[in-house]
């Protein structure tokens, strides 16, 4: 907040300085421009007077010239006739010159168009050459692609033939495989038959064990059958292995051929795409070639037209020049005659013309000066307009800055309201602290009374014991009556009453009661210390908040407003509760009055930018209404602004101090 306040102050100071500087600069500029305008007005008046004089002189000269013309009537008539003829000739020459200039312009235009068309034709020819080169390269690429396409097609046909051959081989191998399987089936049937025979022979051998020869023959047959069986098995295995090898080799070859066929098909598709793209490019180039040829034809036609037009124009120019030369010769002859006749008249006329030229020259000078002055006045008007625009921009910037300041002041008001709420909370805590201190004082007074009562009772008991020892039972009865009287008096006194559980039958205060009272005293002291700590913390927070508020509002810190008289327990015990409460109230009112006086003096003596931050504090202390606070704010804004209007008072301002809404304490 302090940095924010410092930035706000520097901003306000810079803004005030800038506003003062701008006001001074604008005043100086206005004064300078007014002086310049006055000077220009004076010069304008002088020039108008001179111009009027020159006009009068020129009118006099014209009158003299008219008189000379009247004197030279006859000569002027002849001169007018000759001049009329010369004017006609000059008009005809002027028309011819205009026609000649128009024809020359047209010729130059046609030449430029011809140059442009030549340039376009050269550009188009270059583009055509480039397109032809590109076309030739594309044709070469096309031939190469066609050759690659034919090679790929031949490869594809060869691969297709190989595929057909392989399919034929596969069919042949399948037929051979079927034959081999049939043979193996037959051989297996033979083997099963032989095995059956062997089994039957073994059975017979087992049945007829007597015939050794028969047994030997059967054994031979068995061995032969087994050999045949082994041979057939080996043949079958060899046929199967050879057949499997052949099938594997054929399958691998078929796979390789399929892969090569697929790759060749992909290459063929790629070559087809390339050929299609090149064909489209060739078509585009052909179309471009046709367009270029058409453009060349148009350019040639335009060149032919331009040549024809230039030839016709040149012929017309030659004819016009001839007529012009003839007219010039005739005009020169007439001019010579007129010069000889008007030599005498020209001398006097030249004198008047010289004087008229001098006057006209002076008039031109005056007109030039007048135009320069008008230019200067226009520049000054533009400069004034720029100054006005800059002034409007500065006003807009000032309005934006005032809006930003209003937002910051609104934030500051909210913070001050929060601080005031916290101050009220702190005041409430102080009141609670004061009430707690009063309760502690009352408890301490009761404790002291109990101690004195205990001491009196102890003294009475000691006296009773002494009297009982000395005087006997009669005096003891009297003392007991006295003791009962004292205890009844103590019981009737509300200050010195003890709890019922704390009394003993003989009027003594027991050790348990003392310990309980000491514990209660310690608890109360502990509570008092805790409350003092909390009050100190709240006072510290209140001082910090006060410091921040004083930094924001640029108010001198008033330590008396937030001083709280802190005293230890024994000193607090000696103070009367009613007196402390009244003194605190009076002190608070005096402090609030001092703070009010300080804020009002600060508000009246500071600048408008600083007083704007004290509006909320003044309105709270003086119990202003919202209407009064707004009126005070508007008056300060009117004093701070340059272009604002003075606020009108709304209704009657009520005396708010006589009817306070919030008590000062």
From TrEMBL:
A Pfam match: GRIP
Primary localisation category: cytoplasm
Coiled-coil ranges per UniProt: 23-460, 514-555
Gene Ontology terms: cellular component: acrosomal vesicle; Golgi membrane; trans-Golgi network
Annotated localization: Cytoplasmic vesicle, Secretory vesicle, Acrosome; Golgi apparatus membrane; Golgi apparatus, trans-Golgi network membrane
Membrane topology per record: Peripheral membrane protein
Domain GRIP: 586-635
Stretch list, region Disordered: 646-665
Entries under SMART domains matching the protein: Grip
Subunit: Interacts with RAB6A. Directly interacts with TBC1D23. Interacts with FAM91A1; this interaction may be mediated by TBC1D23. Interacts with ARL1; this interaction recruits Golgin-97/GOLGA1 onto the Golgi apparatus.
PANTHER family: GOLGIN SUBFAMILY A MEMBER 1 (PTHR23157:SF24), GRIP AND COILED-COIL DOMAIN-CONTAINING PROTEIN 1 (PTHR23157)
Protein name per UniProt: Golgin subfamily A member 1
Taxonomic source organism: Homo sapiens (Human)
């Amino acid at each position: 907040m302090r940095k924010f306040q410092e930035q706000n102050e520097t901003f306000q100071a810079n803004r005030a300085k800038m506003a003062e500087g701008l006001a001074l600069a604008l005043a100086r500029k206005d004064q300078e421009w007014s002086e310049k305008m006055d000077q220009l007005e004076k010069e304008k008046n002088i020039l108008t007077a001179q111009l009027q004089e020159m006009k009068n002189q020129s009118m006099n000269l014209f009158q003299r010239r008219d008189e000379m013309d009247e004197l030279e009537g006859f000569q002027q008539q002849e001169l007018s006739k000759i001049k009329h003829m010369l004017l006609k000739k000059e008009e005809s020459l002027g028309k011819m010159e205009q026609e000649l200039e128009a024809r020359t312009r047209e010729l130059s235009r046609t030449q430029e168009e011809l140059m442009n068309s030549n340039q376009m034709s050269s550009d188009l020819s270059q583009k055509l050459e480039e397109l032809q080169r590109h076309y030739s390269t594309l044709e070469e690429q096309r031939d190469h692609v066609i050759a690659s396409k034919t090679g790929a097609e031949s490869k594809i046909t060869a691969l297709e033939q190989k595929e057909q051959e392989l399919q034929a081989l596969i069919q042949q191998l399948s037929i051979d495989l079927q034959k081999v399987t049939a043979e193996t089936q037959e051989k297996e049937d033979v083997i099963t038959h032989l095995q059956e025979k062997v089994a039957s022979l073994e059975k017979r051998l087992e049945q007829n064990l007597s015939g050794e020869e028969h047994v030997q023959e059967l054994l031979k047959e068995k061995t032969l059958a087994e050999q045949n069986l082994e041979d057939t098995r080996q043949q079958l295995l060899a046929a199967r292995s050879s057949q499997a090898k052949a099938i594997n080799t054929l399958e691998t070859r078929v796979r390789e051929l399929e892969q090569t066929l697929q790759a060749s098909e992909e290459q063929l598709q790629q070559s087809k795409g390339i050929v299609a793209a090149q064909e489209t490019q060739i078509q585009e180039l052909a179309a471009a070639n046709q367009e270029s040829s058409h453009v060349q034809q148009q350019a040639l036609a335009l060149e032919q037209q331009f040549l024809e037009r230039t030839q016709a124009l040149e012929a017309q120019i030659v004819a016009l020049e001839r007529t012009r030369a003839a007219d010039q010769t005739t005009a020169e002859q007439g001019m010579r005659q007129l010069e000889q006749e008007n030599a005498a008249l020209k001398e006097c006329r030249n004198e008047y013309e010289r004087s008229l030229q001098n006057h006209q020259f002076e008039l031109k000078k005056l007109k030039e000066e007048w135009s320069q002055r008008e230019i200067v006045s226009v520049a000054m008007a533009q400069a004034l307009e720029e100054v006005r625009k800059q002034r409007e921009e500065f006003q807009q910037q000032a309005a934006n800055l005032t809006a930003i300041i209003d937002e910051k002041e609104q934030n500051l008001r909210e913070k001050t309201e929060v601080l005031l709420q916290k101050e009220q909370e702190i005041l409430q805590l102080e009141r609670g602290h004061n009430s707690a201190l009063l309760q502690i004082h009352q408890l301490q007074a009761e404790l002291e009374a109990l101690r004195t009562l205990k001491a009196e009772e102890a003294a009475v008991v000691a006296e009773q014991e002494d009297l009982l020892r000395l005087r006997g039972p009669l005096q003891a009865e009297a003392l007991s009556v006295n003791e009962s009287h004292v205890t009844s008096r103590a019981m009737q006194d509300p200050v010195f009453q003890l709890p019922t559980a704390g009394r003993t039958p003989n009027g003594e205060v027991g050790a348990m009661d003392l310990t309980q009272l000491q514990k209660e005293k310690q608890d109360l002291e502990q509570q008092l210390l805790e409350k003092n700590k909390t009050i100190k913390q709240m006072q510290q927070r209140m001082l910090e908040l006060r410091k921040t508020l004083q930094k924001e509002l640029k108010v001198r810190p008033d330590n008396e407003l937030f001083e709280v008289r802190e005293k230890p327990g024994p000193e607090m015990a000696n103070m009367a509760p009613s007196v402390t409460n009244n003194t605190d109230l009076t002190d608070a009112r005096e402090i609030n009055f001092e703070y009010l006086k300080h804020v009002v003096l600060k508000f009246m003596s500071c600048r408008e930018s600083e007083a704007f931050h004290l509006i909320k504090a003044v309105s709270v202390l003086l119990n202003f209404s919202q209407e009064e606070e707004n009126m005070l704010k508007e008056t300060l804004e009117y004093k701070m602004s340059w272009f604002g209007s003075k606020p009108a008072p709304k209704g009657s301002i009520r005396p708010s101090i006589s009817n306070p809404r919030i008590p000062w304490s």
